[in-house]
C-alpha cells in the first residue's frame, strides 16, 4: 500500500518538528555551556584575585597590629622598670 500524500505531509511535518526541537535543544545547551564558561572565567579572573588581595590586606593589618601591640608592651615594661629602678 502506497502512503497517501496527506500522510507524507504529516510525516514531513513531524520530522521537521522533531528536527527543529533538536536544533533548539542543541542551541540552548551550547548557550548554557558558553554562559557557564564565561561565569567561571569571570569568577577565576576577578573574584579569586580580589579574595586573595583582601586576605593579604587582612594578614598585613593583623601583623601590623600585633607588632604595634608588642612594641607598646615592651615600651611600657621598659618605662615601668626604669621608673621602679
Automatic annotation (TrEMBL):
It comes from the Eukaryota. Keywords: Membrane, Transmembrane, Transmembrane helix. The chain crosses the membrane at residues 12-45, 51-84. This is ABC transmembrane type-1 domain-containing protein. It comes from Elysia marginata.
Amino acid at each position: 500500500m502506497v502512503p497517501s500524500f496527506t500522510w507524507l505531509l504529516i510525516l514531513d511535518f513531524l520530522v521537521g518538528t522533531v528536527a527543529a526541537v533538536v536544533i533548539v535543544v542543541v542551541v540552548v545547551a551550547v548557550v548554557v555551556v558558553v554562559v557557564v564558561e564565561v561565569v567561571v572565567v569571570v569568577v577565576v579572573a576577578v573574584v579569586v584575585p580580589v579574595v586573595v588581595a583582601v586576605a593579604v590586606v587582612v594578614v598585613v593589618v593583623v601583623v601590623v597590629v600585633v607588632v604595634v601591640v608588642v612594641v607598646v608592651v615592651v615600651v611600657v615594661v621598659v618605662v615601668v622598670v626604669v621608673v621602679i629602678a
